[in-house]
Amino acid sequence: MASHGFWFLGAENASGNGSQSPNTPRAWCQAAAQKFSGGIGSKLCALLNVGEAEKTAQAPVKAEDGSTAESCGCNKPCNCSKATVCFSDLYATDLLPALNGDAKTMNFLQEVVDIMLAYIVESFDRSTKVIDFHYPNELLQRNNWELSDEPETLDDILISCRATLKYAIKTAHPRYFNQLSTGLDMVGLAADWLTSTANTNMFTYEVAPVFVLLEYVTLKKMREIIGWQDGHGDGIFSPGGAISNMYAMLLARYKMFPEVKEKGMSSVPRLVAFTSEHSHFSIKKGAAALGIGTESVICIKADERGKMIPSDLERRIVEAKQKGYVPFFVSATAGTTVYGAFDPLMAIADICKKHDIWMHVDGAWGGSLLMSRKHRWKLNGVERANSMTWNPHKMMAVPLQCSALLVREEGLMQSCNQMQACYLFQQDKQYDLSYDTGDKALQCGRHVDIFKLWLMWRAKGTIGFEAQIDKCLELSEYLYNKIKDREGYEMVFDGKVAPVIKARMMEYGTTMVSYQPQGDKVNFFRMVISNPAATFEDIDFLIEEIERLGQDL
Amino acid sequence: MASHGFWFLGAENASGNGSQSPNTPRAWCQAAAQKFSGGIGSKLCALLNVGEAEKTAQAPVKAEDGSTAESCGCNKPCNCSKATVCFSDLYATDLLPALNGDAKTMNFLQEVVDIMLAYIVESFDRSTKVIDFHYPNELLQRNNWELSDEPETLDDILISCRATLKYAIKTAHPRYFNQLSTGLDMVGLAADWLTSTANTNMFTYEVAPVFVLLEYVTLKKMREIIGWQDGHGDGIFSPGGAISNMYAMLLARYKMFPEVKEKGMSSVPRLVAFTSEHSHFSIKKGAAALGIGTESVICIKADERGKMIPSDLERRIVEAKQKGYVPFFVSATAGTTVYGAFDPLMAIADICKKHDIWMHVDGAWGGSLLMSRKHRWKLNGVERANSMTWNPHKMMAVPLQCSALLVREEGLMQSCNQMQACYLFQQDKQYDLSYDTGDKALQCGRHVDIFKLWLMWRAKGTIGFEAQIDKCLELSEYLYNKIKDREGYEMVFDGKVAPVIKARMMEYGTTMVSYQPQGDKVNFFRMVISNPAATFEDIDFLIEEIERLGQDL
């Protein structure tokens, strides 16, 4: 395995300042530090000292005044205030709610913030590695990750924070294309920090008044964008698209056979669901969990572009009915996981209407195109769906996790899932109980996933999201045109090429993109563009890098 | 409705410094600011100016130099550096990944951090209100929460952050007893901030190497504590106890009838599950979702202390078998939601063994007692369970959300839930694929819930968690003894008393505790002690406050 150092400093400088060409961490630290006033310079230095700090962990060097000697580690003055608090004498029990814990708490949290700020700046720097890859066993040995009976000092805790980020994947890096969720939005991040600070639960208005209102406002807005009249309907933010899809299936079943809630599947005829062969695996997972069974999910043929073929859907529905089965659910996909294909929603809506079947649109990936006046036509017909999954944590780059299920019929979620626990959803509360949303879902406690989306929306406006999405599609078109006629691409008949290139990518850490086979096609790279930090140059870099790493194959 | 101001300043001072007796926000700000060196003083001032800031939003006052005039608002010098950056001229598009966005990004994030630090210090201050309560319609009008096409300035975004915290429930407040999850741990908070910053997904080692390893290490440790040999077994962190319980039921069903995954419930006989009448509603919710039906969840009688009666369990199992049903799942509760009762696990384990039924322990609330040498006997027998739900976000006060499902049999989760999506779980990756945990659960993407627990565990050690839990139980005993013989308590025969007192609590904002009826008992207060910030004095306060607010009833 290639054993590169942490820093991958080349000609390109983090500061974009051509006058310096740093080639050591310390030089970079100084250069960066000079750019900022106040304590910010020192923030940039913090992360650079992970190596030193790790050594210090075994044998902390203490100065006469009780402060640790490590400090910032820079040769030049950069206003580091780290030495003023001696974290190696402090423990978690010295922090709030400890008596007089205010100042220590603020200093500790500020130190963690400094570590994070340095990581953030570094993540956007193309001259750093996307990943400092190590195999599991190797990573286990590189640090002490064990849990023990005795507490560690806050200094040790800070070291763990640095080490965790050192080996993290820089998902914000402009050359990270590996998943549908990429990038790191600064307003979204701030909102997620604030969410953690508020540390509450979405189940009742009582404990999350603002967040419950913001969820209400945002879901309504999303329904308006879908095209449901006056934004009427229902919805909830759930822990990911797979769960949102499962909720939709649960609702469809309940709508057709409400007795299933009490009596179970033995009270209903054999139900069958339909989705394209390119759809996400969560449809089958949901069917397995709900007691429907994966064999009752009928996979509809897709065309060569990955779109569901409506005539095949109708044929299979009729066939199922002839067998005495009850078709209850069609999941169309708006943006398939591998090809990014959009099923023809209008034609599917016609078929669902004709056969009286619940139409769900899994827009986990492609739903965000609704924000773009230029591209939303790809989802024409979504307004006729009964439900839709839409994950703002994908193409809208909201921090993980943020997935919405939108439902056209009001009240159905509540009646499908409610158990009316009297300890939580007391009916004699002083406020309007429709704001207690906890009984609409299977979760009891529910993480606050709304604030980051809401705050980003305020910060960008709808037009800001639109611009971001349009740019992703523009980059995607650029990539397509670039490789269309390029020699070597689409010429791969050996399924081992992509995995080898990918493994090399991770070891060099220069970029990350996913691969897989599909149907009769051998392993190919699945290029995802959702990263707001990516530019045309990053696309060029990726193409060159794949060629470079695969040269000998 | 009582319309108190934001600050509830009394004789008690945030600083615990008796020399000052501030009675206005500004005086408090100055007093607090004097305590801290550097920029920290100013941090305390930030939140105090929400009112002013909100006004500024409509008509921002700009100084000649382009900086906003609001600044800190203090009369005294307190090192405020806020005026140096003019956020009212900046937009989200000025932040990273924008060119030269580093400094602006750091300044913006630092400003958000300052707002949060002030909120944190305030949250632990007994002289502030737990909640600044407003009815939904009123809260909707108090601020502009709408989403629009156009972007807002970063100044507006900061105002939204302040407003959101102003109306938030202070779940860290020492007098917040309203839910099973209370308190705010500083190391846990730091870890959650870092988790947001790393912004990745738990499904593969590839994108979350450190977090996947930490989950592995922590789950193993938890299994050792349960008492499973050498910590063998399996597990996952899921989005809450309700989902963990549902996962357990799913596994139990699959273990007995693996064909259910493909063929659905129509391929199996009628299954029945058993749980106590005091168990959490998620057992029924899970049964409804999985197609088992709520009628197939048989509620076993509990004794007057709320514990499941084993002889009734056995009787109902035999009865079910006689009807031709198949008992497949018993969910015992370790710490019921309302009484905090522990079912007799040893006796239940005997019955499950005799009848060959999967034994699950819902220890969402009480599982944490396993960390206490003094109290863990209450869970004797848990080592014989097939699975256990354990929510560190409850009595261990880990930030929301953090729920573990632990499973004794290795490999079962994978075979029950896997769909082997070839775009994610490629079998030709370069590393050990057992670290790709995503196919063990129903979720596809999975939020990183592990780091906060792991970092807190490192910071406290097992003995630190033990001390925290022992203290909660000590406070609980103190409360019990105090009200045991007190006049007026347990004398309430009118179910309207508790809701009225609770409504008054929220309007005054002095404390928060939940209430409900149970069986033939009318509304009573359910006192939860999981808040590490609570002391004996807070218990005294609560008792007095309930009396004061209910005096005229």
UniProtKB/TrEMBL annotation, chains A, B:
Signal peptide (UniProt feature, chain positions): none
Tagged with keyword Iron: no
In-chain residues carrying the UniProt-annotated modification N6-(pyridoxal phosphate)lysine: K394
GO BP annotation list: gamma-aminobutyrate shunt; gamma-aminobutyric acid biosynthetic process
UniProt-listed CDD domains: DOPA_deC_like (cd06450)
Main location: cytoplasm
PROSITE patterns (UniProt xref): DDC_GAD_HDC_YDC (PS00392)
Cofactor(s) the record lists: pyridoxal 5'-phosphate
Any Gene Ontology CC annotation: cytosol
Identification of the protein by name: Glutamate decarboxylase 2
